[in-house]
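Consortium newsletter contribution from the modelling node. Members have asked for a concrete example of what our holo predictions look like. Here is one, prepared for the DQA complex that several groups have been discussing at recent meetings.
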Amino acid sequence: MKVLVLNGPNLGRLGLREPEVYGSTTHAQLADRCRVTGVELGLDVEVRQTDHEGEMIGWLHEAADAGHPVVLNGAAWTHYSIAIRDAVAQLTAPLVEVHISNVHKREDFRHHSYISALAAGVIVGLGIDGYFLALRWIADNAIRSA
Ligand code: DQA
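And here is the predicted structure:
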């Protein structure tokens, strides 16, 4: 089963960006580890990152049409993009929302997510392990015979 791991703005700078908040793993390393985890779990994991909202919306439409489960870190869009929320609402397979940092310990504007009410579940604050836990949950719960 194919699973899309979709990362939003500024996550391409993981490893460089505020390492005290987001850790030292780069996006390329995160993508490799997601793919390896996918192989272990029998999933075909594709990891993408964009700083462009329209591109992310296109990927969500693709997932909706193909029935792919999604692991989404919408980054800042999480907190304000109704367009991303409306694209997520069209998904036909489960979505797990992931945030590397514990957004609830941070600024008030990070406490609200437009995505969470549509997600199967939300993993926050466990660093990049959140992605691997999300993939494990999808492998155990979201297998569909397509
Ligand atoms: C983030 C948290 C967001 O508030 C922030 O805008 C990000 C990353 C996280 O993974 O912790 O870019 O989604």
